[in-house]
Amino acid sequence: AQSVTQLDSQVPVFEEAPVELRCNYSSSVSVYLFWYVQYPNQGLQLLLKYLSGSTLVKGINGFEAEFNKSQTSFHLRKPSVHISDTAEYFCAVSGSGSNYKLTFGKGTLLTVNP
Amino acid sequence: NAGVTQTPKFQVLKTGQSMTLQCAQDMNHEYMSWYRQDPGMGLRLIHYSVGAGITDQGEVPNGYNVSRSTTEDFPLRLLSAAPSQTSVYFCASNKGGQGSYEQYFGPGTRLTVT
After folding, report:
1. What radius of gyration, in Å, describes the C-alpha atoms of chain B?
2. pLDDT tens for residues B72-87?
C-alpha cells in the first residue's frame, strides 16, 4: 500500500516569486510519482511524472520536481510563478506494477497574488 | 478524440434515489477508474477495471457498483444515494501495459444528495 502526504494545504505567493510545493510518500514497493494540477471547476491535468532515471523531471508550464529516494520526497518547484498558476496541485503515487491505481495527496492550493 | 467524457455534469438527488454516472472513453484504453473528490481529502479511488468484464474495489467502494461490459464504457451506479455521497466524481482511463503511465481524467460530475 502507498500513501502520500502534501505538507501544505495552502501556499500563497506573490507573482514572479519562486514556489515549492512539498510532497512525501511512503511505499513498500517501487513507485511512479506524479503531479497533477486542477484549475477551478475543471478536471485534472498531468504536470509531470517520475518513472525512473534522472531524479529531476521537467513538466509543463515551467514546473519541475525532484525525486529524492532517501527522503521519500517529490517536491514541485517553479522559479517564477504567474497569476495563471493559481490552482490546486495534487501529488500522486502508483505502484510500478499497478499504474492504473493512483493514491493522491490531499492537495495544495496555490494562490498567486499580484 | 473526445478523450474521457462524463455525463451528467451536475446532478441533485434525494436520499434513497438511485442513479448511474456515465463514463466513456474513445482511446481504446484497457484501464478505467472512478474517483471521488471531497474538500481537503484529495481524490480517492472507488472502483477500477483492468479490462472488459473485470472490476475491483478501490479505497472507498461502499455504496457504489460498477460493471464493464465494453472497453469504452464504465458506468458508476449509486443504488440508494446518501448525503455522504455528495462529491465530485471523476472517471479516468489508462492505456494499460508497459509504458502506459498517464491517467486521463474526465471533466467530472458534481453530485449533491439532499
Report:
1. 13
2. 999 999 999 999 999 9
